[in-house]
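#struct-pred
JK: can someone run the complex with 3-phenylpyruvic acid? inputs below
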Amino acid sequence: MKSATRTVASLTLVLRIAYFGPEGTFTEQAARALAPGEDLTPYETVRLALQAVRDGAADAACVPIENSVEGVVPATLDGLSDGDPLVATAETILPIHFSVLKRPGSGEIRTVASHPHALAQVREWLETNLPDATPVASSSTAAAAVGVVEGDFDAAVSAPVAIEHYPLEELATGVADVRDAQTRFLMVRRPGELPAPTGADRTSIVAAAVNRTGTLSDLLVELAGRGINLTRIDARPTRNNFGEYRFFIDFEGHVAEPRIIDAMTALRRRCHLRFLGSHPRADGVAATIEEGAGNQDFLDAQAWVDAVLKGEGA
Ligand SMILES: O=C(O)C(=O)Cc1ccccc1
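RT: done, structure tokens with the ligand placed:
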């Protein structure tokens, strides 16, 4: 019998991406930039988007992590520090300016809603242009737009793309107190294969600090002593004991580098660590490596110790 030849059509796996929604958030824009052509699903909160990955309902989640005006997004730090570990495998940075949306034909603006980070970035504009409107926090910029459609609010400070999703009109566009504001977004997934080192990477960790004085400085010394530059450090309450904090630390480098391996083992000996990922920096900034603190220096030092142990050197 003629041997049957079977061809398997190339199966292109479409990734399921959860993102902080609803539709029309800046995070949706970031998800489309990081995962073009994948299957995107909005979730009302950062925590629910992360939980979708933990539950296996999504392969990855796109969430906001920090903003150049208002700092970190606490819900993201808290959502990554507890529960099954998730690691960042990619990031993107978006320039942020807002549209103020209202219902067509509506009258006086008495309330204006948005994500707290958005309200903080347009505070001066609101005071100048909508002085009689009361700012109201909503779960996201797009949730604010939904609230305007539903009559809960009179206006929303939203992402420019929100106008494509909701039957509203633009009261103002290009609104931002700080002209070059930016927000960084992460794509996170369950631990697995790491992105390859690029020389321009970021590694993130959460250090669950013990309540001993000097804990933070002990951690920072392990990095500074190896010439590793921090790019961010934030403290968040553990919510267990008053005054007890976790430290979220980002630094230049990739966990696969010998110099970073040396630092991470030292950090892990000092306190409980959670690895939050090593991935390329969206800004492409290469790591600054001090004289004597490069990967080859660490490899050479290890080779010397190996020779000593074999009685082949001293
Ligand atoms: O609510 C959104 O649209 C988000 O994606 C979070 C956010 C809020 C404000 C600035 C940047 C991102």
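RT: quick notes.
The chain has a mean pLDDT of 94.
The two ends are 71 Å apart (CA to CA).
JK: thanks, will look after standup
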